[in-house]
Amino acid sequence: MTTNNQILLNNLERLGLNKIREYLPNYLDQIHTDNLSLTEALIDLTNSELQNRHEGQIARAIAVLGFPNTKSLDTFDFSFQPSINRQEVLEFQNLAFMEKSENLIFIGNPGVGKTHLAISIGIEACKQGCRVLFINCHELLIRLRAAYEKGLLDRSLSRYSRYDLLIIDEIGYLPIGHQEANLLFQLVNARYEKHSTIITSNSDLSAWVDIFQNPTVTAAILDRLVHHVHVVKITGKSYRLRGLK
Ligand code: ADP
Ligand code: MG
After folding, report:
1. pTM for this structure?
2. Of the residues 20, 39, 122, 197, which has the fewest C-beta atoms closer than 10 A?
3. What are the residues whose beta carbons fall under 8 Å from the beta carbon of 15, sequence distance 6 or more?
4. Does ligand 1 come within 6 angstroms of the Cβ of 239?
5. Cβ(77) to ligand 1 under 6 A?
6. How far is CA 11 from CA 15, 17, 56, 191, in A?
7. Where are the domains positioned within the chain?
8. Which residues make up the environment of ion ligand 2, defined by Cβ < 5 Å?
9. Topology of domain 74-234, per CATH?
10. How far from the centroid of its chain's Cα atoms is residue 142's Cα?
11. Pocket lining: 202 vs ligand 1, CB cutoff 6 Å
C-alpha cells in the first residue's frame, strides 16, 4: 500500500526537489515539535533547496574555471608564514581591490602558498558572481601564441581581457620569448585599469627582466601591472617541506 508519505516523496523526486526530499522525513517531526505553520515550513524547505542549488552552481562554475583544486583562506596557516600581513590578505576576500581594478602579485619561493592564496581569492570572487579564470602562465602564452598564428589574436585578447578576475599562475618558472612577452604585454595592457589580475611568481619584480629577456617589454608590462597593485612578498619556508629539519 502506498502511504501519503511515499506519494509525497515520489512527487518531490519527480519535481527534482531533492534537498526537500532528503530533509522531509526528519523535518516532519520538527514541524510538530516547533509548532511551525505551513508557510514557515515551506519557507525553510524551499530555502534548503535554493541553497543547495546555489552551492551546486558554484561547484560547477569552479570546476570549469581552471582551478587545479579548491583552496580557502580558512585552511591557510598564517602562523607558518609570519612575513604575510594576515589582515591585508583576509581583506582581499572582500574583493574591494576588484572594484578599483587593482592587481595582486604574490611573490615567493616554491611552496610558500602563493597559488593557495590566489585560488582562495579567485574562488571567493567566483562565489560572489564574478567571471574568473585561473590559468598557468605557460599555458596562457601557448594559447595566445596559437591564436596569433591562426590570425585570431584580437578575439583571444578580448576574451581574456573580459574576465572580471584573471589569475596568471607561475610567471617566471620558464623563460619567456620575445613574441610571448609581447603577447603578455598586450593582454596586461588590455586589462589595465579595467579588470583585476592576480599573478604569482617566484621572481622578484626586479628580476623580471631575466624572465622576459628584454628590458623594454619588461618595463612596459611592469608599468601597467604595478600602477595599481598590492604586492605580497612571502619570505618564509616551503610549506611542502615543513616536516623536514
Ligand atoms: P606555491 O604556489 O607558493 O609554490 P602552493 O600554494 O602551491 O605554493 O602551496 C603548496 C602546498 O602547500 C599546497 O597544497 C598549499 O595548499 C599548501 N600550503 C602552502 N602554504 C600553506 C599554509 N601557510 N597553510 C596551509 N597550507 C599551505
Ligand atoms: Mg604555485
Report:
1. 0.85
2. 39
3. none
4. yes
5. yes
6. 6, 9, 22, 50
7. 4-63, 74-234
8. 115
9. Rossmann fold (3.40.50)
10. 21
11. no
Grid coordinates given for 243 = 616536516
Q: Which atom of ligand 1 is nearest to the CA of 108?
A: 3
pLDDT in tens, 200-238: 999 999 999 999 999 999 999 999 999 999 999 999 999
For residue range 26-42, list pLDDT tens digits in order.
Answer: 998 899 899 999 999 99
* C-alpha cell read off for 147: 591564436
